[in-house]
Design brief:
175 residues, mainly alpha, Arc Repressor Mutant, subunit A, 2 domains, two-stranded antiparallel sheet, 2 strands, elongated
Amino acid sequence: MSSTGKTLGQAIDEVIAALEPFDDAARQTIVRAACEHLGVVEPATAQPITSPPPAAPSAASERPPPREPVPKAITDIRSLRTEKRPTTDVEMACIVAYYLDTLAPTDERKQSISKADVDKYFKQAGHRLPKRSDQLLVNAKAAGYFDSAGRGKYKLNPVGHNLVVHTLPRPGSAS
């Protein structure tokens, strides 16, 4: 028994009862936030536990290394757009910048994007073109997703990177 008089099983039952009214996406958000708040490393998978937990880690490796997103075999901007399901032109501009910086074929890679890149890669992705591509990049910078990289050029910053890698697709966005 703990100092509160509850058993581990009772505490688990209370947590389960508290999470039951929520959908899966909300449950994941709640558990992730609670783990972060308590300093607990969350499980590596979102699958139900079906086997006994692994042996306790040695003193040298008490905390596992941070999880990196597992890269999927994205070969073109259209596939990335389909996977990430952007709902705004700003989100799509971030996807283009991420694609060009990280996933594009080596001869196409670049660290900054311009109006011409927005026009070219929005078309390739099958995303509707914005009325003014240059203003879209200004707006994306003002929203905090890009840093200026010279006249008419913008570089995806950590906020934009995190949007693409960790936030998109948003729960409930259309397929």
